Structure formats: C-alpha cells, structure tokens
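Risk mitigation, structural track. In case the binding assays with adenosine monophosphate fail to produce interpretable data, a predicted complex structure has been prepared as a fallback.
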Amino acid sequence: MRIVEAARELSDLSYAVKRGGQKVALVPTMGALHEGHRSLIHMAQQQAEFVIVSIFVNRLQFNNEEDFETYPVTLEDDIAICRSSGVSALYMPSNRSMYPESFSTSVEVSGLTARFEGASRPGHFSGVTTVVTKLLTASAPDIAIFGQKDFQQFAVLRKLVNDLDIPVDMVMAPTIREEDGLALSSRNVRLSAESRQRAVLISQGLFHSLSLFQSGIRDTQELIEAARQTCIGEIEIDYIAIVDAQTLEKVSEVHFGDVLLFAGTIDGIRLIDNIIFSA
Ligand code: AMP
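Fallback model:
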C-alpha cells in the first residue's frame, strides 16, 4: 500500500494508473475507521482495480471547536485496517498542505445546504464541499464512494459534482449498523454506557416508522411521530423530517424512495441517522 502525503504525487499516481487502463475509486474519510468505512472500501474494490482511501480530519467542516478537538484519531489502527483491506493507496495530507496560511478559496453549494445539517451547523457544508473538491481534484477518481449515513452530504456532493462537471461517478453505500441497530459512527466511542443505551432509540424510531410505511401508512406526520415518540424524553431531537431524496424538500405524502432524516444530541454528542422508505 502506497502512503501519499502530497496532492501532486497523488494525481500523478492516479493518472498513471488510469493510463494503464485501470479504474480508480476514492473513499474519503476522517479516519477512526470502522466497519462502515470498511464496507465503503469493499464496495470500491468491487468497482475499481485501484482504491484510494483518504484520511483527513477536516477542520473546516467542524462548526464546533470542541467537536474537532475531541474527534477520535487512531492513525496506526487506520493504516493497519487499510493495509489488511487491500487498499492500493492511502492519502494522508497534512493540515498545512491542505490549508496553507495563504489558502483563501471556498466551494459553496447553495439551496440544499441551507436546511437540516446546514442550518444546525453553520459553515459545515462549505467545509465539506471545499475539502471534497480538493480530494477529487487530487485523486482524479472514476468513482467516489460515500455512505448513506450522511444522506444530506451525499445529496450536496452529487449536486457539486453535477454543477461543476467533475467527471466522477458518485456512489452511495448503505449504512452499516451495530447488531442492535445503532448506525456506526466514529463519534460513538464518545458515548457513555448509559448514553449508548439511549442512542439505540434513534434507529428503533426510524425502523418503527419504516414498518408503519410498509404496512401502508403514507401520512408524513404519522410517520414522523412514530420516530419522535420512540426518542422523546431520551434524546434531544434537533430535527426529524421526511424529504424527497433528490431535492431534500419536505413531502406532504410519503412515497417509496423518500427519506426520513434524523438528528439529535445525547449528552452533548450529536448523532445523525436516516432511513429510505422501501418495501
Ligand atoms: P467520516 O469518516 O465519518 O467522515 O465518514 C467517511 C465516509 O464513511 C462518509 O462517506 C460516511 O457517510 C461513511 N460512513 C460513516 N459511517 C458509516 C456507516 N455506519 N455506514 C456506512 N458508511 C458510513
């Protein structure tokens, strides 16, 4: 596995691989790798011969300094996971090389970023779109893989790539969960044993709503309430909404493919999850 720190070195590598007739896939991460990330790597390997994983804790997308300071860093383990997973190249740029003092560019997607995570975390999405633009430029992949776990992020990045004509296929991988349903997240390690127990209510609420949908209920409020009632009093709910998967506009009646978005806080730790209404 090649470890690369410079953007130019990564693009030289990627273009050489592509000239040799192989496909390149990129899996962007912030490290603290878990089974969710591994599933993204696995999916990338099914679609491309050469898989690049990037690890960069992107300060720009943290609207909360404490969240950034306490974000888990497990570099040695991450490198071992990438190696044992058969990753072709690991891109680990330094903060200074990504954002030198002279850095003054920002990439913004309007509209989709105004709601939900964008409203609750000002500046978050411009940090995400700026860093992902840099990662896509540096790695020039044919395919980029992102998790459904961050559903709004995927919608925003798909828009970014379309609007800027970036020649990459965007792929969304399903959310990997603990056995009890909690979506894997690097932030889960910060949950106390007691908070961890409460955290499971999020996915229980989402699956309750999904099962009502599958039994024929299409009323938006009823499906939102099902999720809310499961969490009420235990989790500080930020938002629960059912939206169209492309536009993220709220829907008045729920159809197959619409998405229930959830964000809430337990003991100061913000967790997000979502479910796509399906059969
Ligand atoms: P992060 O390191 O948290 O920024 O996430 C890197 C990528 O992994 C993003 O595309 C996330 O959506 C994805 N991801 C995070 N958690 C999960 C999960 N539980 N299942 C699948 N993908 C995930």
